[in-house]
Amino acid sequence: MLKTIIPVFLLLFLAGCSSKTVYAPDEKAYATEDLDIFHALEYKNSGRTDKAVETYATLYKKSGKAEYLIEKIKLLIGAKRYSEAKTQILEANTQNIKLQRLLVLVYLKQQKLDDALKIALKNIKTSNSYIDYKVAADLYLAKKEYEHSFKYMQSAYAKNQTVETLMPMVKVLVSYLKKDADAIAYLQTHLKSFGFNEALASQLLAIYGKNSNVEGMKESLKLLYNNTKKDDYAKKLLSIYGYQNDSEGAIGFLEESGYNQPLLYDLYKQKKLYSKALDVAMQLYKDTANPTWLAQAAILQYDLEYPLTKIVQTFEQAIEEGVNDPMYLNYYGYILIDHELDIAYGIKLVKQALEQKPDSVYYIDSLAWGYYKQKKCKMAKKYLPRLEMDDSEEIRQHIKMIKRCTD
Q1: 2 and 80 belong to one structural domain
Q2: CA atoms within 13 A on the CB side of 129
């Protein structure tokens, strides 16, 4: 267990101790200090650790500057010379916080968790820094003392309210202390106080999911999508609305977010909100230049009882711009036939639809109805055997009238 946490601590300590060497001010401690620094860096960068350690030792001895001892200790730790590193720190007899943090790391490398914790707690008194509270919290976590760990995590977070200090708290609350409600409260408060963060919002979503809190999941997914515009969040949210059969909720999200407007169009139609569906269809036509949306708009105009001249105009524009789908050709053709606007042209459009779908009983019905309107009763009756195979109310009415038809 202990070995698995050492890499995390190593990162913590090296971050706390700074990986960038801080050298002396303008006034050098001795004449060749700059040259010795240059040699130390050359040895370090070329992998000659022993020579680098020796040179930093010289720099420290001649200048008394802790920065050089820190660099030496870090090299010893990197070379796994832990006993030597510990001796050097103890012999320095200093409370330099960077050296004391390195001492914690040395004890950790030596698998001496209690000694590491003892120094970490002393470091808190010395520095009162969130870094040292965080280190102590992680050490308690390694010892499975979760309440103590959380206590020090709280202190670290109080001093440095960041995602990096909050996420470990949430993990301990959820995974070890089983206090999901507290974790949710911390996450919500942080998001409210400091603004959106995807990692925190995702963690909030995960906790709601773990507790089957569907309303919480929906709110989290809305927050995530609205701030990231990632499709995955919107799709998950819409799947929840679908599972709940909550079309109103889905419509509200789509209206507010602007996501997947074709789906919003479909939902409006399902709810028979034709005026709103028409607005969406026209906007989609403007956005995409796809004339299919004009054809859809024409159908909605018909459902909304727009003037026939307007409906014809919209259908004609759609066809001129390339619409050739048999559904639209038949729909438009039937309107022209049924309202006797242009029966011949209507029949022509229906025939074009039948070329693509010759077995469609609805298209056959439109054609027979066109011939009926033209008083071509024999032509209309020719299609009766096929129409009589269908039992829809409108087709049955057409059959009756065609049977009564005489040339």
Answers
A1: yes
A2: 15
